[in-house]
Amino acid sequence: MTIEKQPGFDPRLAWASEGGTLLAGACPVLVVVDILRFTTAVEVAVAHSALVVPERWAGREGQGLSSLSPVSLLGVPAGTRVTLASPNGATVSLDLADAGAVVLAGCLRNASAVAAAARDLGGPVGVVAAGERRVDGSLRPAVEDLVGAGAILHALGGRPSPEARTAVAAFLDAAAEQDVSQAVPRLSGGVFGQLS
Q1: CATH 3.40.50.970: does it fit domain 9-194?
Q2: Distance of CA 176 to CAs 108, 129, 181, Å?
């Protein structure tokens, strides 16, 4: 077993299809996290009893594809079949399913529920932060996906891998800093100052 599979730990964290595919050999359940669009859009649609068909991104807009904006899916009628294409979350989800894993979609809105369901399905559990792709196709880790993965990993508990502990720390640090200031910076005359 390779170090990338993080043996002896549960839960585990990996990035993108490459890391998630490695984890699929050791983790029967993988949670995909693509916070700003895909997995949040999936959660909103499924919460409204819609069905979501992930599709690999082919650089095309329209053509029967639904918007990745979670807000656009708030009023989706129950039973609607929604096709969501994305270069990150949808592609990672399909790659992990092809690798034989049970794939769940996680975001900040459903972190605890997804963690509980993943535990019920059996472990060890892996969380896969989708990240973004640069123009050359290389991975660009996305902070928002790290924080979202940290929320789910925090809810999973257990004996997290060092990678997973880093994500939990990022989530807790970000959450701990919320509403610590009353400052409201306003740009006026080319300078930010306190809104009066």
Answers
A1: no
A2: 15, 21, 12
- Do β-strands 51-56 and 102-106 pair in parallel, antiparallel, or remain unpaired? unpaired
* Cα–Cα dist 39/152, whole Å: 13
Which residue ranges make up each domain of the chain? 9-194
Mean of the per-residue pLDDT values for the chain?
87
CA 180-108-34 angle, 5° bins = 120
Cα 67 to Cα 85, 134, 137: the distances in Å are 9, 22, 23
- Give the count of beta carbons closer than 10 Å to the beta carbon of residue 119: 17
In degrees, to the nearest 5, what angle opens at C-alpha 116 toward C-alphas 19 and 121?
65
105-142 pLDDT, tens digit per residue, is 999 999 999 999 999 998 899 999 999 999 998 999 99
d(CA 178, CA 172): 10
Asked whether 128 and 16 are in contact (CB, 8 A), the reply is yes
Looking from the CA of 25 toward its CB, the CA atoms found within 13 Å total 12
